[in-house]
Design goal:
globular; five-stranded antiparallel β-sheet; 1 helix; 46% strand; single chain; mainly beta; 1% helix
Length: 316
C-alpha cells in the first residue's frame, strides 16, 4: 500500500544545525541520538559490543571529541553478560532517563558467529542528568531472545516497548511496560518481512510522530551488511495501538543507498536545538560495501521534514 503523501513535495529551504558527515570518525553502528534541552547536551549511544557508553557534547559537531561515560561493561562473572551489547537507546521518562539494550547471556565458542542467548537489559539514571550515572536494573525478560528495543507512549498513555524477538517469529513485537523497566507478559506480533521486498529482516524500529498527528514506525529491512539494507515505514491507522490490524506498511522505502552511502538503516530520530527533526542512521562507505561481512558502519545525520499530508521526508 502506498501511504498518503505528497509525491511532488519540495521542502522550503532552511539552514540545518551544523554536523560533520560522518558525525564520528569510526565504526558507530545502530546509532541513537537525542538532545536534552534541560542540560543543553546532545547524547549519542551506539553498539560497542563489550560496553555501553554515552557520548555527549554541546553541539553535534563536538560529539567526535565529546565526553564519554561508560555505564556498563560485559563481565559475566559479575552481571551474567558475555558481550554483544547491541543497539542501546536512552529515553527520558518522567524525571529520569532509561537505557534499553540487549546482551548475550551465554559464551561464544571460538569461530562461531551466532550463538543466541540475547536478552533485554535495562538501566535507570540516578537523576535528570544522565552523566550523574546509571544503575543496572538487570535482565527485563529472561525467557525470550530479543534485540533492538525502543519505547513510546501510546495515544492512551501506556508505555510500550517495540523490539525483535527471535524464536517467536520474524519481525517486530510490541509489549507494554508496566513500569519503565518492567515488561508485561503479553506480547503482540506486529509485523513480519513481507511481499514489499524486505528480505528476512524487520528490525531497528523507531516511532515518529508528525505535526498533524500521524504516527509512524520507521524500521530497517534486509540485513545490516547488505547494500539493500534500508529504512522502511509503517503507519498507525487507528484502533488498538498494540494490534497488527492497526498498522499498514508503505510499499516504498523511506531511505535507500544514496550518494556513496550504502545500506542506510537502524535509525533514530531527534529534535535538535533548532526545534527541527533530524534522523541519525548508520551506513557503509564505498570501500567496504558489498562484502556481506562485518565492516565499519558510520553515523550520519540528515534533516527530516513533513509534507502537507504529514508524511516524513529525509533530506539527502
Amino acid at each position: 500500500m502506498i501511504l498518503r503523501k505528497d509525491e511532488n513535495f519540495v521542502p522550503a529551504p532552511f539552514t540545518p544545525v551544523p554536523y560533520p558527515d560522518p558525525v564520528l570518525p569510526g565504526d558507530a553502528p545502530d546509532p541513537f541520538v537525542t538532545y536534552d534541552a534541560e542540560h543543553g547536551y546532545y547524547y549519542t549511544l551506539y553498539t560497542e559490543c563489550s560496553r555501553i557508553s554515552i557520548l555527549r557534547a554541546k553541539t553535534l559537531s563536538g560529539l567526535a571529541s565529546g565526553e564519554r561515560l561508560v555505564i556498563f561493561r560485559a563481565i559475566p562473572e559479575e552481571n551474567g553478560i558475555y558481550g554483544d551489547l547491541w543497539a542501546p537507546e536512552m529515553h527520558r521518562i518522567g524525571d529520569r532517563w532509561y537505557v534499553y539494550s540487549s546482551g548475550r547471556t551465554i559464551p561464544r565458542p571460538e569461530g562461531v558467529v551466532w550463538v543466541g542467548g540475547y536478552r533485554l537489559i535495562t538501566f535507570a539514571s540516578r537523576s535528570s542528568d544522565p552523566f550523574d550515572g546509571f544503575d543496572y536494573c538487570g535482565i527485563a525478560d529472561k525467557e525470550h531472545q530479543a534485540i533492538d528495543p525502543t519505547v513510546t507512549r501510546a495515544p492512551d498513555g501506556r508505555l510500550l516497548l517495540c523490539h525483535v524477538i527471535h524464536g517467536l517469529g520474524d519481525g517486530l513485537f510490541l509489549r507494554e511496560l508496566t513500569a519503565p523497566t518492567v515488561l508485561s507478559d503479553e506480547i503482540v506480533h506486529l509485523c513480519s518481512p513481507d511481499s514489499v521486498g524486505e528480505g528476512r529482516v524487520n528490525e531497528g524500529a523507531f516511532f515518529v510522530k508528525s505535526p498533524n498527528g500521524r504516527i509512524f514506525i520507521v524500521y530497517s529491512a534486509f540485513g545490516c551488511f547488505d547494500d539493500r539494507y534500508r529504512l522502511s515505514v509503517m503507519e498507525y491507522t487507528g484502533g488498538a495501538f498494540d494490534s497488527s490490524e492497526s498498522w499498514v506498511k508503505d510499499d516504498e522505502p523511506l531511505l535507500t543507498s544514496f550518494d556513496g552511502l550504502y545500506g542506510p538503516g537502524h535509525a533514530s530520530f531527534f529534535t535538535a536545538e533548532d526545534g527541527r527533526l533530524y534522523v541519525a542512521f548508520h551506513a557503509m562507505h564505498p570501500e567496504a560495501h558489498g562484502t556481506g561481512n562485518p565492516v565499519p558502519r558510520y553515523l550520519h545525520i540528515r534533516p527530516v521534514v513533513f509534507d502537507g499530508a504529514g508524511y516524513p521526508h529525509i533530506i539527502r
